[in-house]
Amino acid sequence: MEIIDLTYNIEENMSIFDAPWHSKISITQMGRISCEGRETRRICLGTHSGTHMDAPLHFISQGNTIDEIPLSRLIGGVTIVDFSRLQENEVVTRKMLERISISKRMIFNFGWGKNWKKSNFFMGYPFLSYEAAEYLISEKIEVLGMDTPSPDDSRVNVCDPNLERCNDSPIHKLLLKHGIIIIEYLANLNEIEQPEGWNLLALPLKIKGADGAPIRVCIYR
Questions:
Q1: Is the pLDDT of residue 159 over 80?
Q2: Which of 59, 85, 122, 132 is least enclosed by beta carbons within 10 angstroms?
Q3: How many helices (H) and strands (E) would you count in the chain?
Q4: Domains in the chain and their CATH numbers?
């Protein structure tokens, strides 16, 4: 079996979105073999740390939580699309999507992993137009993964206290409202030489009532 791990390591000082609702990651050693006879660690991280999955509750009041997502949606055939030719801040349009095959599970490779751990990772990535998101909904996709931090335009100031004015995260809200699961911060998409014939395995931490969770995700064939 061929397997490609699409998950970033969880480690202290890893890249996180700079907002007050995101927690910095800390990993503290508790038990030591030399003293307590065993190794244990305390991990503090947010539900949207590193490679992670958004449940509808992330933006939709009363939306489904991470533990309510059926595993059958997160395991199976996946269509991988190479969008690495797109420029910074370029929009994925409906016309672009109409030219490709759409399946229940999609991964968009924007080539953005080259910016991981760099200051520009959270700015300038390609994003979906509203019409493109509507098209994906009409094609009945269930899971959308990407190697960027978000399907939304990074130039919108989501930390603006007037969220109505800044039009906060419209693509997130549209996709999640229709039950489409979003996977962000995918790693190692540059290792995929042949995009056909892959299956997706994306397993989130089963946190009861959570809006999202870190995941271990891979593709295999």
A1: no
A2: 85
A3: 4, 13
A4: 3-8+46-220 (3.50.30.50)
